[in-house]
Structure of 3-methyl-2-oxobutanoate hydroxymethyltransferase:
Amino acid sequence: MKTTSNFISMKKNDEKITMMTAYDFPTAKFAEEAGMDMILVGDSLGMVVLGYDSTVFVTMDDMIHHGKAVRRGAKDTFVVVDMPFGTFHGSLDSALTNAVQLMQQTGAQAVKLEGADDVLPVIEKLTFAGIPVIAHLGLLPQSAGVLGGYKVQGKTAAAAEKLIEDAKLCEKAGACAVVLECIPHQLTDTISKALTIPTIGIGAGAQADGQVLVFHDMVKYGTHHIPKFVKEFANVGEPILAGIKQYVEEVKNGTFPTVEHSFTMKEEQLSALYG
Ligand code: KIV
Ligand code: NA
């Protein structure tokens, strides 16, 4: 399994870091088999798996439940679990308690939290407690209500300057990596060059030290809105729907199951039974 220092070396050696989300056992297994460097149990879980319209509804129990399944599927991959909405702003102590719970219950290697400003002391506190922290800047889905929707961030010089400063402060606070979501690629370039820790981009261009995508988006699994920055690496939704429709049809018209898909009792047992 790779470690946080491996990721820093990868950045130094210009080797890209790969990350995708997973929320269950089979997906985690696929990710590990594909050689993924890191798996994120993202709170995007709320939208792509649980059907909520934002990440606000995701709980600690949800993250633990799915984090455990991912761990079982990918025993040798660096797993990161998102701290859900409202679990790291109350107090430093409650943030630490929640992070410890996520680490101990799921067996993850790191937690991820959105934001800088009042989150910086949290990053520092968790890091001092021995918990690797991945920061998350740019578009912060947990703050979509405050930001006024899911929009590209850091487009003005002033906003970009603040993001560069925030990224440096996250590194200073001890973060082991920074996710950059939905920011202009030029800004990703600047931030990546300014930091020793790796940047992991999503909708942030090619200049990040690594890339992350939401599993359901990259393979088109589900009916949710897929953002513009996602490339369709597979389209599993169509064959899944076609297969399910065929199953319904074949059960209705008696094509399935046949003897081939049934169990047969031996003749002598049948005569013993019915005489
Ligand atoms: O929850 C998630 O999937 C994330 C990624 C978008 C980085 O935080
Ligand atoms: Na997230």
